[in-house]
């Protein structure tokens, strides 16, 4: 079973990596199309479990303790 | 309009960041549940466009030229 965790900066938190990418895209001629870029992490977890409900609870614990810095980041979990 | 680009390492390419996360999860007691972790990047692009077909072509160009290293990485584009 596979869980996909997306971790991204909260609204209002500065994202210098996204700014750098937007600037680089502008230099490449995509400036008119691209208004803004935000960058996050995507973690794909291979799980020894077939029970989505209990796995989700465990993956939430992983996010809270390790995968996301919940002061500045939010996360989503998909199966 | 928003495009979501996921960039991840190709199968077979070593992922030391994923290995480190898997090891840390093991230390936290999630070792039995988690078989493996792969880490990628997620970029959310805000676009000045309402035409999905033409935007997709442009975003593919961005991936090929800047956002992904296609030697070792694959990417997906979602709208």
CATH class type of chain A: Alpha Beta
Number of domains of chain A: 1
SS strand fraction of chain A: 35-45%
Helix content of chain A: 25-40%
Mean pLDDT of chain A: 95
Task: Note the run of SSEs of chain A as H and E.
Answer: EHEHE
Low-confidence segments of chain A, given as residue ranges, are none
The quaternary state of the protein chains shown equals: homodimer
Number of strands of chain A: 3
What is the count of helical runs of chain A? 2
Can you describe this structure?
The structure is a homodimer of 79-residue chains. Chain A is of the alpha+beta class. The first copy, chain A, has one domain (2-78): Phosphoribosylformylglycinamidine synthase subunit PurS (Mth169, Chain: A, 2-Layer Sandwich), CATH 3.30.1280.10. In chain A, 39% of the residues lie in helices and 35% in strands. In chain A, strands 2-1-3 form a 3-stranded antiparallel β-sheet. The longest helix of chain A has 16 residues, at 52-67. The model of chain A has no long low-confidence stretch (mean pLDDT 95). Chain A binds chain B through residues 6, 8, 18, 21, 24-25, 28, 30, 32-49, 55, 58, 61-62, 65-67, and chain B through 6, 8, 18, 21, 24-25, 28, 30, 32-49, 55, 58, 61-62, 65-67.
Provide a concise account of the structure shown:
The structure is a homodimer of 79-residue chains. Chain A has 79 residues and is an alpha+beta fold.
